[in-house]
# Entry
Amino acid sequence: MTRHPDDAPRLLPPADTVTDNERTVLTYTAMLKSSYAGIKNYRFHEASQETKITAGEWENAKAALISRKLLNKAGAITVAGRNAIA
# Structure
């Protein structure tokens, strides 16, 4: 049976439920490089300015996402992580 491409998102497994802090980590990880213009941890730097997430909240959310395999061990977003914020 051939399906129309517009039906594809409905065929994906349900996205994992993520907290606001986890969504922030996933979103900034998906859209920014880890370092830029000499700023290490650029993702956190930008997220903290825009969302007021603290370093502790960021690290706790990141650890939770790694344990749930929404981020890999290096902190890069996985396909499941992208689906969780889609």
Observations:
- DSSP finds five helices and no strands in the chain.
